[in-house]
């Protein structure tokens, strides 16, 4: 090896000596990045390594070095814009390909080629380059074609690439192989419709069109003749079919759909038009032949031409042949076909059947042609056959295509009832059930594999069929479930599927009485597959039994309307939840966690029924499952335990005046309160945090109910009592429990709040819950706590959460919290002003957090002005801060600091705040200066902000509903200020502000007149069109 070859090999060897490898990397980097590096690499490819000792020896570069040099050349082709360079590379590459790949003396050697040494063929044995070298060479040739054909290299195909086919003798096969590689690469990178999408060049689509047009004029006819010759001599058949598949999308279809090509395709897929014998040489080309025919059928054309072509291609006979003698699902494609990316004859034959069906369906959508219906009637049963024969463990991907074809047919049935074929749909349902049951995951690791997505598609197909013919699907489901009830041994995968079928039926026809009765029968008599034995936990059947249990609980949680009307059924379902098949299952954490999750969903809808009829049994069953402490061993994990506490809270909270509920609440909330206090006083933060989390989820059910639950049927025998539906306050005993718990959380916050972020976060959530639970009783507890939270909040995000808490309190109790709001407003506002985005332009996380804080501050101001708390802003304690409030809100009008999605909403909110503030202040003469300040600053902002706000990134953005509402608020504010401030506001607006924006005197006069005398709607339209024209002239 010479020095260069040694350097490349060292670069590719991670185990080489570090010092040598560093020097090698530097050398290679210099070559690859230098302007003429490609020229050096081309010389190395064409001339080989240097003959260091002067003795004739093997001079061909190592394959690794050849590949490296080719990559440098490829990079140079992409970068180069010099035509002369491209011609040099073109001739050098062809010279090298002919000698090294095809082992023939190149006609390009010498002949003005500065890179060619004129060296002839070596006399000794020659090892042809491996596939990756040939593919990289084909890529380089293709890139040159994409850059230089037809302008710089007009004979690229007709003489040079096609010249590879003129070689004879032993070199013939190598030349033809290289020809096919180049033509495949040209399709991949240049001429296919997908090629421009893969290209980083903006001109990719334009160049692809130009090259296709040039090829049509220059060489397509010759290319087709080559293909016919290959098929006629039965050589390179798979490669030829593959090129037909690739190029048919843009060449004239009549060049291929003729007597030279179609019979060869039929031979390949095992069907002869004239009943002749199938040639042995064609038997190994089923995959490529089927794929070529599929591509021909996919050719775009009008409906009539497509149906005519399908008739001329005799697709009925093709389907019949593929149905009588389908390829074996276990056979692989031939070696040649596998090299081209084909998987198996069965997969490609199934794709062909699906293509025939999908094209017929497309024709049926556009033209209700009886010939398309006829093709479809033949194709659908064949698709079913292929689905039945597909191995669910295979990677062939047959079923997804088949499912799409059947789904397309079903969708057409919605619009064309006349094409509904009940026998076909029954067949579909039968095959669907068999296939979907085998695709149930066999272990957790299977969940993300393709079988899951296929199964999802099959279930969606079942649902779509149910929408079209509900009676047929209901009858099928009945038979399916009945068969599984008597099956021995039971099959958990099919039982799980039956439950999935019921869920789909319930979703499609929730009011169907027959479906409700069938679900009730199934829930009352759970599948035997739910009884999980210890010995089967880690088996395939065990995993599928787990999925059957989960499906049962999912069905139960979705059937809450049925359960609320049948007390016996609800009791039976709750029994399944609490026994060994659900929450008490000793073997499967997955079953227990899913039972918890679905029971929570069920209880949210049926809590009143459970509290009325099954309170004692349910509460006792739940308490047996709860952990007795944060460190105690439990049957359920932490998440499931919190869900159980939430379930308890939901049940107990809806009947809190019931003496039994009070007793149970005391027995649960009391220990939680004691746990918080004990852990806080002993410095055990994690333990205290666990009890606070329990208190949060428990309290969700005790919030004051203001609306009746819409999910409760009014005619149910277990309907919600009117008093509960109307919303009654908590009884005194329960309120005392939660007040004590609130005191405990305040003590916990005092101990850990300054040092533990989780403490601050969870305490805020708890106080949110208490505002809903205790309402105005929570005010004394928040009086001191809000100040502490404001003081120690870390960063804009935490402070924003504190403002949100104050916001919720104001919305909930209104004027009752005036004293607290009056005292907390100034500390909160001052802390807000500590955070700024001034000087920060990048949209960092900090900038986003400050923007969110400002939004919440504006919301808080709006709530104060809208909920009988406007006097907070004008009280003796806060009035000195009013000017800062006005300045901040007027600054918010321009929307700067917010992304375009928020800017418009913030602008509207700030306008509403200013309008309400003016209405409040105008009634008190002492605030005349503040009103003047609003008039001056809002006068500037009302017009100028619209000229620069990110809320209006385009001219069309002025016409959105939100933009129109912003202008309505703008007009309302301007008219209000004109009414209150009179000429002072109008003179400033028309003499100072509008001229500064470039408005001419006549437009200013028109603006003033429209503002004073015009109606609001007319002025709003005029104002919006004016600003739109000024911003986007």
From TrEMBL:
Task: Name the GO terms of the biological process aspect.
Answer: tRNA re-export from nucleus
SUPFAM superfamilies assigned to the protein according to its UniProt record, in alphabetical order? ARM repeat (SSF48371)
Q: List where in the cell it is found.
A: Cytoplasm; Nucleus
GO cellular component terms, semicolon-separated: cytoplasm; nuclear matrix; nuclear pore
**Gene3D superfamilies this protein is in?**
Leucine-rich Repeat Variant
The residues that cross the membrane are none
Any one GO MF term held by the record is: tRNA binding
Q: Which residues form the Exportin-T C-terminal domain?
A: 540-1030
Q: Where is it chiefly localized?
A: cytoplasm
For this UniProt record, give its keywords in alphabetical order, as a comma-separated list: Cytoplasm, Nucleus, RNA-binding, Transport, tRNA-binding
Does the keyword section mention Nucleotidyltransferase? no
Residue span, Exportin-1/Importin-beta-like domain: 130-270
Q: Which InterPro entries match?
A: ARM-like, ARM-type_fold, Exportin-1/Importin-b-like, Exportin-T_C, XPOT
Describe the function of this protein.
tRNA nucleus export receptor which facilitates tRNA translocation across the nuclear pore complex.
Q: Which family does it belong to?
A: Belongs to the exportin family.
Check the record and name the PANTHER family matching this protein.
EXPORTIN-T, EXPORTIN-T/LOS1
Q: What is this protein called?
A: Exportin-T
